[in-house]
Structure to design on (365 residues):
């Protein structure tokens, strides 16, 4: 009987997920006694009835490295430690099904799990490792908010999509003498917004790490116009907030979904600018999930492939309780404790922030 490794993708989708899956399978096929299986929609495939477990072979992964999303599906809701259960009265509660999942993994003959996901997924990896299960983590998020790795795959593609949006907004803004506000993803980190602003030549970049003074933004916009002629581009991260203010978000009422729903800060900023005296025509563009879908760029395909190969080799070496990481130029393993211990914020005094200020980008401070 072949030794089995199970692959799961959890959290939001991300360019490069399929490249990781493909790399794991192709590396495993070099070992005659290993088989790779996938759990559909993170760990739901193991815990639901009937189970949804698929064998991942050469045929299933052929050519998938150029495709966005994940062929085994993903979810941001629930999880083995907080499994949603509907009561007879229609209300919902949660249950810890982690022990049940471990028993099911043993019944399936799974020797180890490669869990591909962001901060929340790697917390789950750590919790299972502490219960004695063999877990290896692979970091995935467009937000680049895991501090234990130089980059997460998917980030570069998301940044490129945001930069493309800035490039396109420049021409329409210049044609109409407008201010455009581009809202991008990133949750509590401003990596996408700041990098896209620099790459695209934006005038203002507002990120969660630097609460903005609306007067600074007003002054920058005014400097871009002469007798009502001119234009300005503002890139704002979804988690940005005004000085002495709060992030703009909504609580989710979806069962099993714990994250707050960020978004709407672009519209809020335009209203603030109007109240501060800006009369120029202003429009918002929310890039949203366009940043997460589609074909990964070459950098993310390569990084994801490196992560996949390394993850399988960590399984063979029994390096459980660890996560793959990129420490330029090497692909290494780090303890899961280190992987989730610190959020990867943009340092307001970093070289990247200094570069933005150096070329005249207003950071709102």
């Amino acid at each position: 009987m072949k030794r089995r490794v199970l692959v799961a993708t959890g959290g939001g989708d991300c360019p490069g997920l399929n490249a990781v899956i493909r790399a794991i399978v192709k590396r495993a096929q070099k070992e005659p006694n290993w088989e790779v299986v996938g759990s559909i929609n993170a760990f739901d495939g193991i815990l639901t009835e009937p189970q949804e477990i698929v064998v991942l072979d050469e045929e299933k992964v052929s050519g998938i490295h150029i495709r966005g999303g994940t062929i085994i599906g993903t979810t941001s809701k629930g999880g083995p430690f907080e499994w949603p259960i509907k009561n007879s009265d229609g209300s919902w509660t949660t249950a810890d099904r982690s022990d049940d999942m471990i028993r099911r993994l043993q019944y399936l003959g799974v020797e180890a799990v490669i869990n591909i996901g962001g901060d929340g997924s790697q917390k789950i990896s750590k919790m299972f490792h502490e219960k004695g299960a063999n877990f290896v983590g692979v970091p995935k998020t467009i937000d680049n908010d895991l501090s234990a790795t130089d980059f997460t795959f998917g980030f570069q593609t998301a940044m490129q999509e945001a930069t493309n949006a800035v490039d396109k907004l420049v021409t329409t803004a210049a044609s109409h003498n407008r201010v455009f506000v581009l809202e991008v993803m990133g949750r509590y980190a401003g990596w996408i917004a700041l990098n896209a602003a620099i790459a695209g030549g934006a005038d203002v970049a507002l990120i969660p790490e630097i609460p903005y003074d609306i007067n600074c933004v007003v002054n920058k916009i005014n400097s871009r116009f002469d007798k009502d002629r001119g234009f300005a581009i503002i890139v704002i991260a979804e988690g940005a907030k005004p000085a002495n203010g709060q992030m703009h978000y909504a609580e989710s009422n979806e069962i099993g979904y714990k994250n707050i729903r960020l978004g709407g800060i672009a519209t809020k900023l335009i209203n603030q600018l109007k109240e501060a005296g800006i009369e120029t025509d202003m429009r918002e563009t929310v890039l949203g999930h366009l940043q997460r879908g589609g074909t990964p760029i070459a950098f993310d395909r390569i990084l994801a492939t490196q992560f996949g190969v390394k993850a399988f080799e960590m399984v063979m070496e029994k390096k459980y309780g660890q996560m793959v990481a990129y420490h330029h130029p090497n692909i290494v393993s780090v303890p899961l404790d280190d992987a989730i211990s610190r959020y990867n914020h943009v340092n307001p005094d970093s070289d990247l922030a200094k570069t933005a200020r150096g070329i005249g980008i207003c950071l709102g401070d």
Remarks:
- The chain has two domains: 3-153+296-328, 158-292+347-358.
- The two ends are 62 Å apart (CA to CA).
